[in-house]
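Chapter summary example.
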Amino acid sequence: MNMDVIEMARELGKAIQEDERYTRYMDACTLNDTDTELQNEIGKFNLKRSQLGEELRKDSKDTESIKVLNDEIQQMYKDIMEMPKMVEFNQAKADLEKLITSVNYIITQASEGADPETCPETPPASCSGNCSGCAGCS
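The structure predicted for these 138 residues follows.
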């Protein structure tokens, strides 16, 4: 195998795009983007946020209006996040992020001298992933 590191990174990128977690995330994005009900609710949410922003910029703020708008925004957000397609999107996104975090962690560990075959896939619970100033993993 006579591949340089950049070529291997491109191959890794292709492998990620072939992974079920990536395709599931992309499918969830498409479903959300084409879901009229979800997009309408997001539009209403953004409009309500704009109204709150306008209210907050006023010199004489109406604290009751601000509270009502804030409560409405929180409820709208909760409702959107509980919609089945949004739940699926968030889970698919979290699964893909976990994969990318593992890939990045293995690469980071290998670049610091760890054996890429045996280093853990995930950082210890207290690890931020930024190794500057780190005393090392146990």
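To summarize the output: The helical segments are 5-18, 20-34, 36-57, 63-81, 84-111.
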